[in-house]
Amino acid sequence: MPFFTDKGRIRKVWHSIRNTFQRDRSQQAASRTEHKKNDNVTPRWVHKKPITLAIGAIAALVIVGFSGNQYVKAHAVDFVQVYMNGNLVGEVASQDQVNQLISRKQSELKKNNPNITMVLETGTLKFEHKSAYKAKPASSETLQKLEGLFSAHAKGVELVVNGKAIGIVKDQATADAILKRVKGKYAPQTVAKKQAIEVTALAFSSRSVAANSNPTRSALKSVNFLEKVTTDVKDVQPTDILNADQVYLMLVKGTVKATKYTVQEGDCVGCIAHKFNISKQVIYDRNPWIQDDMIKVGDELDLTVLKPQVTVQTIENVTETVSIEPITVIQKNSNMRAGEQKLIRQGQSGKKKVVYRQVKQNGYLMSEELIGEQVLESTVPAIIMKGTKVILGEGSGNFAWPVSGARLTSGFGQRWGRMHKGVDLVGNSSILAADNGVVSFAGTKNGLGNCIIINHKNGYETTYGHLSKISVSEGQVVEKGDKIGVMGNTGHSFGTHLHFEVHKNGELQNPLKYL
Ligand SMILES: [Zn+2]
């Protein structure tokens, strides 16, 4: 080793310095006795000389030693020992080489697996810095060996529902986006939309109701999964990673296989639903092309019953503007005849805002609760004045058939060259008062036989002829529909029937205009 050869050299130099020093000391001892007499030289000077020489010798020694070190240093090579998980892998010229290897491997992984998070396992690397004379570290061998020791795996994020693994996606952002999309399927209002709705709701109160074309609004209050949905970061193989659409479909469809059915002779939507023991709604939902239940032989139906892995529960506040009908206030007036009424004030309908809290699961309404009501526009009640004054025997002005099940056998007007003053009716034999009134005649009249005349005290009179029996007497007050006699064939008559006349202020009327 170069260190030992140098030591011999140092010893030789030291030996020559020591000899010089000793020789000097004997010369000084001689001159000291000589100078004692003339005292030319101060003793201090004399004493100083050997010290000066010693310092010089040490300096020389230091210089020799220093230059030896310089030599070693000039030929020493720094290198790094690389340990992986505590085991020596080899030596490299610099740690940078290892760092470069790692970053090269990492970019290779990234390039070969563009959409996957790859992790390079380098183990625990430790570096020991060494230096040796003319060392030649086998860098490339070490790096090659190290590369062989490295391993790689993918990192994925697994979606777990109630402890059941659904699928692995490439990263947390993808997992989050899928969950957001599932929620969005049943809660279509995004956060941005929700804010817009709240803004509308604020503006709503200050604007007129009429300006609001769509009175139904829905504000999403919460959306969450009923199941425990978690995500776990996992070390996986790149092939384990599924794309986002696959995992989304697994969540909303479950792992149910598609069921197809071809419509056969005699099938109907309801029959197929019954045959497969599924709801008709499933058939409509899965086959939106069906209109008015129309399916024909050969049509292919999708009868897949989805069993989603998750249940999205949404809570929405649904606001509706509904109209309120006005109430009617009745004012009684004893100066007005009973049955008469007069509209005093037209009612006006109002508007109110009602808020329902709807809980839906996967879009199906589970419960609805009225949580708020606010009147936006009050109603104006209608006022109707109703008369209470009752005049006994006064007609209503509306006539009822005097015979139930009446059949007309002869009309009003000219007949065989003579005027027929009324109508002839057959039907039930009971004769009924056509309106309220007072019996003004009950007896026999020429031609009409047994006859009743009722004065309705409103300008009208009615006549009932050919009766077999009269059941009322003159002056009697009758009500509309009261039985007043029995149909007959008395007077100038050819067969049992009722002859019925209507007079208005003494003028003959065609009764059919009033019946
Ligand atoms: Zn007649």
**Average pLDDT, all residues:** 82
Low-confidence parts: 1-14, 19-49, 190-214
What distance lies between the first and last C-alpha atoms, to the nearest angstrom? 144 Å
Query: Which structural class fits the helix and strand makeup?
Result: alpha+beta
Give the number of helices.
Answer: 9
Bound molecules: zinc ion
Q: What is the 3D shape? A: rod-shaped
Largest sheet: 8 strands, antiparallel
Question: Helicity, in percent?
Answer: 25-40%
What Rg is obtained from the alpha carbons, in whole angstroms? Answer: 60 Å
Number of strands: 29
Strand content: 35-45%
In short:
This protein is of the alpha+beta class and 515 residues long. It contains 9 helices and 29 strands. The longest helix has 37 residues, at 2-38.
Descriptive terms for the model:
515 residues, alpha+beta, Resuscitation-promoting factor rpfb fold, eight-stranded antiparallel sheet, rod-shaped, Peptidase M23
What does this structure look like?
- By secondary structure, the chain is α+β, with helices and mostly antiparallel strands.
- Among the domains are: 1-149, no CATH class; 312-389, Single Sheet (Resuscitation-promoting factor rpfb fold), CATH 2.20.230.10; 407-513, Glucose Permease (Domain IIA) (Distorted Sandwich), CATH 2.70.70.10.
- Helix content is 30%, strand content 37%.
- The chain is built from 9 helices and 29 strands.
- The protein has helices at 2-38, 43-75, 95-112, 139-149, 172-186, 191-206, 244-253, 269-276, 280-286, and strands spanning 76-84, 87-92, 117-121, 125-133, 151-161, 164-169, 217-225, 229-236, 260-262, 300-302, 312-324, 328-337, 341-345, 350-361, 364-377, 382-389, 407-410, 413-415, 418-420, 423-426, 430-432, 437-445, 449-455, 460-467, 469-470, 477-478, 483-486, 498-504, 507-509.
- Strands 17, 20, 22, 23, 24, 26, 28 and 29 form an 8-stranded antiparallel beta sheet that branches. Strands 3, 5, 6 and 8 form a 4-stranded antiparallel beta sheet that branches.
- A hairpin with a 2-residue loop joins β28 (498-504) and β29 (507-509).
- α1 (2-38) runs antiparallel to α2 (43-75) and α3 (95-112) packs across α4 (139-149).
- Bound molecules: zinc ion.
